[in-house]
Specification:
Layout: E1 5-8, H1 14-20, E2 25-28, H2 34-43, E3 46-49, H3 56-60, E4 67-70, H4 80-85, E5 89-91, H5 98-113, H6 116-124, E6 143-147, H7 151-164, E7 167-171, H8 177-182, E8 186-187, H9 191-197, E9 200-203, H10 217-222, E10 228-231, H11 240-249, E11 254-257, E12 277-279, H12 288-306
Parallel strand pairs: 1-2, 1-3, 3-4, 4-5, 6-7, 6-9, 7-8, 9-10, 10-11, 11-12
């Protein structure tokens, strides 16, 4: 009997591939041209996806597709409405790399405050004597403002409160003050108020119509001039043009970005030349441990659906009884 076909269009940990191979033929499409991708999708029973955009058009070209397993939690790259219409099960792995992203977020806070890339270059280029002119910010005793306090935000709160004795405040309209308190923060109902009180602003929201460009010029103007902004969530939460202006004009002290409006940012993107910005290529959650867990968990979603078992992390439960079989 021919095994069903699983497509992996983005690189995942090899242990996830091995898990898929228990019940699937697996094709890894990283680097393939669009035509080859479309041909593979047309025969696919399952897709394990990280960043590739799965549009209605691609789903229309995949008549055998039964399940989309998201390698991670954010699904803004998947047309969930179209998948539901076509009877395709979509599931994710919420919190699967939360520890890794939280650590990466705090590392970016420290790198921004300590100007790590710049001081590395000073030493590497023989300017050691500049040390006498350098002064840094610190986390200890400061106020952390979390915009969103889900799986990752709660872990960042714990690291910063316990490790750096920071006061932690959070803006999250979806949660009550009591729920925010159980996650280690004081709830602030107004975003502008949070921006004005915090020394470090860290973003932990999904991308929605409401959160698009939530951090705009007005928001950046509301921050302390001594504050920094860190974003390891979604690039489009921040108006990058406004942030570039804010950094050049000194509205805020610095920024750490793991995500961008356009990924990868173009070689002429102004944010690349902004002062006191620390950049990383959307890898805050890319530890070996997290990558392995996400790969295996997303493979198990595909295996469950093909075997007729309802998967964990199911995002469109209304499709289950009328799913493609």
């Amino acid at each position: 009997m021919t095994l069903p076909l699983a497509i992996v269009p983005d690189p995942i940990h090899q242990d996830g591939i091995a898990k898929l191979q228990e019940q699937f033929r697996v094709e890894i499409l990283a680097g393939w041209e669009d035509t080859a991708r479309r041909e593979a999708f047309a025969a696919a029973d399952a897709i394990v996806v990280r960043n590739l955009a799965l549009s209605r058009e691609l789903m229309e070209a995949a008549p055998n597709l039964k399940v989309i397993a998201k390698h991670g939690s954010g699904v803004d790259n998947i047309d969930l409405a179209a998948a539901t219409e076509y009877g395709i099960v979509v599931a994710n792995v919420p919190g699967g790399n939360a520890d890794a992203v939280a650590e990466g977020t705090v590392a970016m806070m420290l790198a921004t405050l300590r100007r790590t890339p710049a001081v590395h270059d000073l030493v590497a280029h023989g300017r050691y004597e500049v040390r006498w002119k350098l002064q840094y910010g610190q986390l200890t005793g400061k106020t952390l403002g979390l915009v969103g306090i889900g799986n990752v935000g709660a872990r960042v709160a714990a690291i910063c409160a316990n490790g750096f004795k920071m006061r932690v405040v959070a803006y999250d309209p979806q949660l009550t003050a009591a729920a925010v308190a159980t996650r280690g923060a004081e709830k602030i109902d107004d975003l502008r108020s949070l921006l004005g009180v915090a020394d470090v602003i860290s973003l932990h929201l999904p991308l929605t119509d409401e959160s698009f460009h939530m951090i705009d010029r007005d928001a950046l103007r509301a921050m302390k001039r001594t504050a920094i902004l860190v974003n390891a969530a979604r690039g489009l939460l921040v108006d990058e043009s406004a942030l570039t202006e804010a950094l050049h004009e000194g509205w805020i002290a610095g920024a750490g970005l793991d995500v961008f409006e356009s990924e990868p940012p173009g070689p002429d993107a102004p944010i690349l030349r902004a002062p006191n910005v620390v950049l990383s290529p959307h890898t805050a959650g890319s530890t070996d441990e997290a990558s392995r867990h996400l790969a295996i968990a997303s493979a198990e979603i595909a295996l469950d659906v093909i075997a007729g078992r309802q998967p964990s992390g199911l995002l469109n439960p209304e499709v289950w009884e009328r799913r493609r079989r």
